[in-house]
Amino acid sequence: MTKRTYQTIVCIGFMLSVIYSATAADKLPYFSGKRDPFWPVGYAPFAKKSAPKKVDKQRLTDAELRALALAQQERLKRQLELEGSISKAGKRYILINGNLVTTGDLLEIVVGGEVYKLKVKGLSSNNIQLEPLTE
Questions:
Q1: pLDDT at 51
Q2: Which of 14, 16, 27, 48 is least enclosed by beta carbons within 10 angstroms?
Q3: How does pLDDT run across 34-65, given as a tens digit for each residue?
Q4: Which helix (H) or strand (E) element contains residue 131?
Q5: What stretch of H or E contains 68?
Q6: What CA–CA distance (Å, rounded) separates 106 from 132?
Q7: Which residues have CB under 8 Å from 83's CB, separation 6+?
Q8: What is the residue extent of each domain of the chain?
Q9: What Å distances lie between residue 1 and 14, 15, 78, 80, 81, CA to CA?
Q10: Could you read off the pLDDT tens digit of each residue along the chain, which spans 135 residues?
Q11: Residue 50: helix, strand or coil by DSSP?
Q12: What element of type H or E holds 25?
């Protein structure tokens, strides 16, 4: 075999290997050049991520919003422990959770880790009217 024949065979072999690797790159990720040989088996960094779904925010009607606010107010009232009431000089005082409060005082109630600030709007012997404060 002459030198020229040997070079031709090597050149044809090289061209066939390039063609094979180009077609194999479509089928096998190992030959595509996109996979690092040091990645764990089954690791796919190029997996397609799904787009986040848009969530339609439901608008509450005024009646639903009022009902929700009343339910929240009742939940807050249950956290208050009315221990007694007294009237002095025409002004009513109520003992709530160990604190003496009257109309216009501010209360802070912690429910479920959230702090609610409320203003005492009105008092009676067994009831308290609260108004939420917004900051």
A1: 67
A2: 48
A3: 667 777 877 766 656 666 666 666 777 778 87
A4: strand 128-132
A5: helix 62-79
A6: 10
A7: 95, 96, 97, 98
A8: 1-45, 63-132
A9: 19, 20, 101, 103, 106
A10: 788 898 898 888 888 877 766 555 555 554 455 667 777 877 766 656 666 666 666 777 778 877 877 777 777 777 788 888 888 888 888 888 888 888 999 888 777 777 778 888 888 777 788 887 765
A11: coil
A12: helix 3-27
Q: Per the structure block, which two tokens stand in for 131?
A: 């108004």
- The per-residue DSSP string of 72-119 comes to HHHHHHHH--EEEEEEETTEEEEEETTEEE-TT-EEEEEETTEEEEEE
Q: Minimal CA–CA distance to 112: which of 83, 76, 60, 69? A: 76
Helix (H, G, I), strand (E, B) or coil at 130: strand
Q: Which two tokens stand for residue 103?
A: 């109309």
Give the Cα separation of 96 and 106 in Å (integer).
12
Q: Is 70 helix (H, G, I), strand (E, B) or coil?
A: helix
